[in-house]
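Re: that backbone. Tokens:
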């Protein structure tokens, strides 16, 4: 289940498939590939390295 969060509140997407979710009321479309991100995935993520200063 995927949630559509807006300033009006939060609700489930009326339309949801394995690859996308769509909320016509708010004009929100979500697309994804692969399995959902889970906490363990985020735990192993590293922030992008800072860009080196110019010159
Ligand atoms: Zn919505």
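Recovered sequence:
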């Amino acid at each position: 289940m995927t949630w559509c969060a807006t300033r009006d509140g939060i609700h489930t997407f009326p339309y949801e498939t394995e690859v996308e979710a769509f909320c016509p009321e708010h004009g929100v479309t979500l697309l994804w590939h692969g399995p959902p991100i889970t906490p363990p995935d985020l735990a192993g993520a590293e922030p992008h390295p800072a860009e080196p200063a110019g010159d």
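Residues 4, 6, 11, 23, 25-26, 28 surround zinc ion (CB under 6 Å). The longest strand covers residues 3-6.
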